[in-house]
Structure formats: structure tokens, C-alpha cells
Design brief:
This is Transmembrane protein 82. The protein has 345 residues and is mostly helical. Helix content is 75%, strand content 0%.
């Protein structure tokens, strides 16, 4: 049956038509990546709001999370989708591999006795890399598919559905969580009240699977351009050395100067390192992609400034399973104070 969605496969293979079809596919991949980043952002916002609500001393932080600008969120989504569309697949693959190496190094150091706030910071900093991982995975999985555009449209529909659900969850939590958790008649709010502490682990597992597929796709996409083993070695050897030095430098800088300003500096160092590396082993289009990736990193950091400040809070309330509900009565001044699990450190 003829369908407008399969029009590129029925018409003659003209160069202009192939270019237009490739641009449409890249746009669909960018939209899917932007929707995935939005899903992660909405879930983190809901998680932080529940944690601030469970602690009476976090009223100012709670009000900052409650302020929403729907137009700004739409502009942020559209801008990120445009950036992911313009970035070449090779550059997106390099960004995914660099972040994965940095994340593994950070997680190995966290196992030696670090707090859970570093994991939350890692989730915030991975947003642009997550979008690149999704675009790389879609480019690899849909390469050579007979109905690639239709498949990408179906994937975009699923991504938009997930984004809409998490956006409604965030809006519902910000407006009604305090009332519903105290009255105990909303299943969503009661579920967050009882199991919000497990949301970071769930996000971590989902991100691990996403980046595992993205890394596999990135390696295959990069290796397909090499005809011989010597060409691949000339590319991977300096790339591995550059990534290793970047990881060592960034870990030292983050230990000295923790904060958003340090993350901005590390973004500049990372992109400058990749830019210099690709001057010798890359292509001129890769250099344009690196500059676009720098814009994408700053674009994602701009939307996580408030959440990044919350990660600096020591002993975040909802990190502990003993977080109390807001409906529990406070002890009277005459009664002896009982030890509470959510007392700020």
C-alpha cells in the first residue's frame, strides 16, 4: 500500500531527494534525543521537589522548583533538538565515548566512600551526552533500514509520549504533592512518598543501558571509516591518550573547585582537547561539530543550574529511606525532641 511516509523509497534516487531524506532523519533523531533529555530532567525535578518538601527547612528551594516557564522549556527542547541535528554522528560518538570513560572513572571513585550527591551531579551533567548517545544508537540501529523514516517517526512518537507523561508527573508533583501526601489518597504521590529514594537507582540503570548501547554504536560508527588496521590505530591511540589525560585533569579540578563554575571550565577543556585532537586525525566537518557540541553542553548546563545547586546540599533529605512524610505532626515545644532521620546535617 502506498503511504506518504514511504515516498522517499518509491521515488528515483535523486541527490537532492537523498539529501532531504537524510536531513529529515537527522531532525527526527535530534528530536528523539531532546525528548530523552527532557524525560531525565523532569524526573530529576520531581525527585528534588519531593526531597525539598520532606524537609521544612527547604522552602526556598521548593519554591524555586515550583516556578515553571512552559515557553522556556519549549525553547530549550527545540534548541537542543536543533543542536543534536546539526552535530555530525562522528562527533556525537566521540562525546559519548568521552563521557562514558569519565563516568566510569567517577563511579569507581564513588565506590570508595563518596556521597550520593555526586551521582546526582553525574545525572545532571550527562544530559547532552545522553542526547548524543540516543542519536548514535538510532543512527546505527536504523542504518540501511527500508523504512527508516517511518521507524524514526514511531520512535519520536514514543519519546514524545514519555516526555508528556514525565512532564505531567512533574507538574502534578509541584502542584498537589503536599496536599495528596498529607491526605493519602493519590497513588502517584504516595508512591513517591514511599519510594522516591529509589528513583536515582532506577535512573542509573536506565542510563547505564542507554550508554552501553550508545558506546557500542559509537565504536562501530567510528570504525566504519577506516579501511585498514593501521588507520584505526592512528586514530584510536591519540584519542585514548587524550581522553585519559582529560579524565585525570577533570577529576583533580572537581576535587579542588566543586561547583557549576568548575563544570563550565571542564567543558571548555574537554572541547578544546577534542578540537586539537581532531585537527590532526579528524575532518573539517568534525571541527564544526565540536563547536556545536560546545554550544550544546552550555545549553544543557543552562537548564540545570538550579538543580546543580541542590546537589551541593549536604545530606539531601530524600537520599535516606527514613525520610518523614509532611503529614507527620511536629513535636510540641514542651515535649522532648525525638531524633529524626531527616534532620539536616
Amino acid at each position: 500500500m502506498f503511504s506518504p511516509l514511504s515516498l522517499p523509497s518509491w521515488l528515483p534516487s535523486l541527490p537532492s531527494l537523498e539529501w532531504g531524506s537524510g536531513l529529515l532523519d537527522a531532525l527526527l533523531q535530534g528530536l528523539v534525543g531532546a525528548c530523552g533529555v527532557s524525560v531525565l530532567s523532569n524526573l530529576l525535578k520531581a525527585y528534588f521537589f519531593v526531597g525539598c518538601t520532606n524537609d521544612p527547612e527547604r522552602r526556598l528551594e521548593k519554591e524555586r522548583l515550583r516556578v515553571r516557564w512552559a515557553s522556556l522549556e519549549t525553547v530549550h527542547l527545540a534548541g537542543l533538538a536543533l543542536i543534536l541535528t546539526v552535530v555530525q554522528v562522528r562527533v556525537a560518538a566521540l562525546v559519548v565515548l568521552e563521557f562514558s570513560l569519565r563516568a566510569v572513572s567517577m563511579l569507581l571513585s564513588l565506590d570508595k566512600g563518596a556521597r550520593g550527591t555526586e551521582r546526582l551531579q553525574l545525572y545532571l551533567l550527562c544530559q547532552y551526552s545522553l542526547g548524543c548517545a540516543l542519536t548514535c544508537s538510532l543512527s546505527f540501529l536504523q542504518e540501511g533500514a527500508p523504512h527508516r523514516t517511518l521507524n524514526l517517526l514511531l520512535g519520536l512518537g514514543l519519546a514524545a509520549l514519555l516526555r508528556s507523561g514525565t512532564r505531567r508527573l512533574h507538574r502534578h508533583v509541584c502542584q498537589l504533592y503536599e496536599l495528596h501526601s498529607s491526605q493519602r489518597y493519590c497513588g502517584v504521590c504516595l508512591g513517591l512518598l514511599a519510594g522516591a529514594c529509589g528513583l536515582p537507582r532506577l535512573l542509573g540503570r536506565a542510563l547505564a543501558v542507554t550508554f552501553a548501547v550508545g558506546n557500542l554504536a559509537a565504536v562501530i560508527l567510528l570504525n566504519r571509516d577506516f579501511l585498514t588496521t593501521s588507520e584505526a590505530v592512528r586514530f584510536w591511540m591519540p584519542l585514548t591518550i587524550c581522553y585519559t589525560l582529560l579524565v585525570i585533569y577533570m577529576q583533580e579540578e572537581q576535587q579542588r573547585y566543586p561547583g557549576l563554575q568548575s563544570q563550565v571550565q571542564t567543558v571548555l577543556v574537554r572541547m578544546c582537547g577534542l578540537f586539537l585532537l581532531l585537527l590532526t586525525v579528524g575532518r573539517w566537518l568534525d571541527l564544526v561539530g565540536i563547536l556545536t557540541s560546545l554550544l550544546g553542553e552550555f545549553w544543557c548546563l543552562l537548564g540545570t543550574r538550579t538543580l546543580f545547586d541542590f546537589c551541593q546540599i549536604q545530606d539531601f533529605p530524600s537520599q535516606r529511606p527514613s525520610a518523614s512524610a509532611p503529614s507527620q505532626p511536629r513535636p510540641s515545644p514542651s515535649a522532648p525532641a525525638q531524633p529524626r532521620g531527616t534532620a539536616p546535617s
